[in-house]
Structure to design on (547 residues):
RNA sequence: GGCCCCGUCGUCUAGAGGCCUAGGACGCCGCCCUCUCAAGGCGGUAACGCCGGUUCGAAUCCGGUCGGGGCUACCA
């Protein structure tokens, strides 16, 4: 065992003691049953959508138990740190309505909530562990570590720093001193009490009893001594922070399950009471024949930014995610499902596939419940950031936009479900706005479905010549019908199907000509209402655009 | 390689030994409505990975096997 004098020389002389931090962060006084949870993302770019999922779960459990939800930033990896990530986190949490009760931004008595600002705390506990002989300095270089792992693999041994491979674990003091005097950098490693062959088990709040080999790896606690500030690795920061912050329940992703034996050893060595765990399944992605973890690198829909940029309503996304967590909630109507508490016991244990088609469906249903004015407001809010042209056109013609959105929506028994996300507005309703509508001028345009150009011209000309505006006593579509009839189109689909050669097309084809001219597409909301919303002049301008 | 987790329709799931001829939702297919699309109505397609055991009886319990995922970093 290293002398206290040597150990202390490794740390600042004024480093506080554990007792200092314990009293600095007093025990919480919360009602019985209240859970303190936390979400601890790493600032490496946009949050993974799974992060919104996990954060939402943590917040929900805290809120419904009368506890606190803490947001902690785990920025101990300088290499992967991305400037701007924090702002993106904030944007993501705000968009999805997941506000932390405690964080650097929200305040709270257990901060700072950013790990890089807690370096002294980790050092205190690292020194304490060393003083007790539960941790030690290790001078193995990265290159040596690599070589060690290669030798272990060749020898058929488990990779890791343990047993005979842990050469600094019991190194004599003068050897350590010599390296220190030479100025060699070192890491602080945990002296794991695990022995080969030992088994441990614990109860996961979602999965129940889980057993595994005990940890016997002397993991790194504090990274290289020659980095700017000596920061901890996750495994060490986790027990220290969660203990000091008074966290009572750790809900995190499944990939941490195999680290639980290590984490328990650390809690024990530190003298902290263990904290219960709940490990949630990761979101998956279908990839060819198999499935894999949804990856931010490969899958655009893995990034929270995607949902924001596309303008998926947060309510729909959250509802979908909650349904994935608790199947029970997926069967409930949205407002109810959002209000119901999540129950850990009901969580699925298998990683669900993210189904964007299902999300589309949920989202379309949700948007259909919104009044036109609200849809417009939200489209505008979105467009001001992601489609500025649309934003200026639409806000200049607010009344028209409202009329457009009212079609088959206001007072309709079955409301249109053609908007899944705000980015859909332009392709679906853009034609209502003259400024961004592109006139159709070519009679042989593919959108006319291969109809003879002469017929297309005749339809357009006839329609324009006798145009009657929609009104209370007007059977508006009748003018298309009679025009189509006089040009020889089959007036009933059935007739046309029976004998396609006898007609140039059916009434549907004839109507399509007018539809394409007016809306630029073969598909659109109700014809009559569209014409009414556009007004006589604009309808005629578009129909007459044909050269 | 070692250890861990998981395995019901294409997808999300209900199912905790007889209520299962396996239910619902999304998708898909068909029909109806119809000037197109969306919506809506009606109907249909489709699953307990496999093999053994326990039991009068198994999707449900046990074992094995196969498949998928995770961990095995001075990343989290």
């Amino acid at each position: 065992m290293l002398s206290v004098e040597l150990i202390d020389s490794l740390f600042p002389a004024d480093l506080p003691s554990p007792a200092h931090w314990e009293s600095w962060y007093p025990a919480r006084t919360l009602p019985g049953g209240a859970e303190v949870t936390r979400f601890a993302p790493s600032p490496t770019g946009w949050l993974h959508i799974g992060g919104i999922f996990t954060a939402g779960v943590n917040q929900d459990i805290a809120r419904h138990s009368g506890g606190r939800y803490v947001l902690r930033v785990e920025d101990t990896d300088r290499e992967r740190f991305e400037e701007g990530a924090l702002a993106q986190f904030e944007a993501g949490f705000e968009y999805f309505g997941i506000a932390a009760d405690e964080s650097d931004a929200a305040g709270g008595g257990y901060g700072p909530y950013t790990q890089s600002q807690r370096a002294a705390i980790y050092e205190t506990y690292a020194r304490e562990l060393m003083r007790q002989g539960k941790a030690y300095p290790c001078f193995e270089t990265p290159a040596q570590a690599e070589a060690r792992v290669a030798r272990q693999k060749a020898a058929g041994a488990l990779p890791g720093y343990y047993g005979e491979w842990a050469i600094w674990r019991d190194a004599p003091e003068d050897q350590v001193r010599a390296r220190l005097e030479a100025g060699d950098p070192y890491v602080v490693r945990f002296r794991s009490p695990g022995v080969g062959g030992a088994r441990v088990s614990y109860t996961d709040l979602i999965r129940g009893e889980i057993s595994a080999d005990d940890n016997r790896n002397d993991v790194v606690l504090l990274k290289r001594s020659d980095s700017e500030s000596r920061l901890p690795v996750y495994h060490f920061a986790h027990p220290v922070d969660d203990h000091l912050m008074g966290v009572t329940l750790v809900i995190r992703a499944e990939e941490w399950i195999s680290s639980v034996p290590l984490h328990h050893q650390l809690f024990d060595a530190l003298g902290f009471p263990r904290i219960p765990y709940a490990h949630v399944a990761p979101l998956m992605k279908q990839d060819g024949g198999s499935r894999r973890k949804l990856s931010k690198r490969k899958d655009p829909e893995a990034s929270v930014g995607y949902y924001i940029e596309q303008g998926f309503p947060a309510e729909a996304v959250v509802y979908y995610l909650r349904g994935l967590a608790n199947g029970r909630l997926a069967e409930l109507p949205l407002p109810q499902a959002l209000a119901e508490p999540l129950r850990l016991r009901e969580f699925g244990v298998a990683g669900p596939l993210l189904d964007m088609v299902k999300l589309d469906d949920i989202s379309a249903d949700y948007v259909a419940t919104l009044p036109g004015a609200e849809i417009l407001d939200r489209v505008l809010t979105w467009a001001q950031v992601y489609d500025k042209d649309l934003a200026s056109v639409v806000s200049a013609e607010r009344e028209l936009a409202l009329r457009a959105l009212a079609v088959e929506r206001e007072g309709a028994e079955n409301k249109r479900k053609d908007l899944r996300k705000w980015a859909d507005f332009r392709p679906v309703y853009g034609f209502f706005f003259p400024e961004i509508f592109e006139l159709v001028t070519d009679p042989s345009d593919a959108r006319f479905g291969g109809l003879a150009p002469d017929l297309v011209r005749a339809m357009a000309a006839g329609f324009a010549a006798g145009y009657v505006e929609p009104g209370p006593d007007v059977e508006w579509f009748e003018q298309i019908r009679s025009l189509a009839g006089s040009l020889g189109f089959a007036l009933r689909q059935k007739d046309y199907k029976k004998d396609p050669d006898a007609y140039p097309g059916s009434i549907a084809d004839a109507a399509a000509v007018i539809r394409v001219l007016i809306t630029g597409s073969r598909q659109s909301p109700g014809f009559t209402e569209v014409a009414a919303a556009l007004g006589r002049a604009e309808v005629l301008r578009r129909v007459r655009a044909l050269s």
In short: The first strand of chain A starts at residue 36 and ends at 39.
